[in-house]
HNH endonuclease (Mucilaginibacter myungsuensis), 258 residues
Amino acid sequence: MPTNWIISANPEMYDHSSSFEHHSYIDWRQKANFKPDDVVFIYTTRPISSIQYKCIVTKIDLAYPNLRDDKEYWRNLDEYYKSINGKFMRLNLVEQVYRPHLSLEVLLQNGLNGSPQGPVKINSQLFEYLEANFSDNLQYEIFPELISQSSTDFEGVKRQVTVNKYERSSIARKKCVDHHGYNCSVCDINFVNIYGELGKDFIHVHHLIPIHLVGKGYKVDYKKDLIPVCPNCHAMLHRKIGGIEPTIGELRKLLNRT
């Protein structure tokens, strides 16, 4: 029977988010008796202090040079060269999220015994909580019509992802708004100015590159490829005139015309 684990990850040492986004798996140092099909939740340490990734162990006892070359994701190359010794396991990404329900403070109230430092087996209470709350339906809850669109191959990985994967991803959304802020890029609305505290941190994100132009070598740039938009403008950006979705500039012109 598969075992459920928590391991920790330091975001100041390695860019786990981009590594998972670009390749869908990471070859991770094997520091416990992991087995294929084990479920591994990854806790991201300070300043995030939250569980962000759910993975499945697909391979164990891997060794250099039979590892994916991930040098570009290490923030400190000295640590990279130290990391290539020993045994590794392959963690295939199931889901990645950024949700307050999975913060350390909340997890400590739901079965976690302390801040994760190394591989820890998950007790039944915590596992039930994680399974019930580990979803990335942030925008599905408020914009479900986007989910029904067609799918395409991404990054050469043999799995299907929806057209609006980045628009629905809570991690992609956070990276986008951390850079651009919460004002709509089309109409400039900020929901805090209208609804006060109720509108805090509310905004959609829009993926600027048409999906048919995304090739297998594509890697999302959260600063250039994603922008914040309000739900109304987001809906209009996904409507088509003559079979073509409007650009941000075209939608701004339509808005200014009214």
